[in-house]
Amino acid sequence: METKRHIDAAFSDWRGEIYNLFEGRLGHVALITSKKGSVRANHYHKEDHQYIYLVSGAYKSYSCDIQNPNKKQVLEVKPGDIVETPPLIAHAQKFTEDSVFLAFSTREREEGKYEDDTIAFSVTEGYLNKELKKA
Q: What kind and span of H or E run contains 103?
């Protein structure tokens, strides 16, 4: 399932703060905005390991193991939280406020790679990308 942890400042002084968000190999990073009430994802990745760091706003993260879709998990996510989603875990975000987040992926997303690795899977009611293969 997904895990969530809050990231506190690793360093702080009169100049400001440093937050260490991620360590490891990355294939892609995106800055994404979402409007209150919108739903993102509703899919799973065959190989990609994903991390979402919430900069501002709030959302509920819905997830389930695709082998056991009836056992769902819901996490309340607030600014400073990072949610880790391993491969084969279906996930969706339902935004309870206008939000800004950073999405870190271990796989590249250039033409075709995202679509080959991403399978549509309804975890919660809302948007489902019709361009993706379905589970």
A: strand 99-105
CATH no., domain 3-134: 2.60.120.10
- Is 82 in a helix, a strand, or coil? strand
Q: Which helix (H) or strand (E) segment is 50 a member of?
A: strand 50-56
- Tokens 């996490």 locate to 75
Which residues sit opposite 41 in a β-bridge? 92
pTM for the predicted model, two decimal places = 0.95
- Span 111-127, average pLDDT: 91
Specify whether the CB–CB gap between 104 and 29 falls below 8 A. Answer: yes
Would you list the domain boundaries of the chain?
3-134
Could you tell me the end-to-end alpha-carbon distance of the chain, in angstroms, rounded to an integer?
A: 18
| Rounded alpha-carbon distances, angstroms, from residue 33 to 38, 54, 80 | 10, 10, 15
Alpha helix positions (H), the chain: 113-117
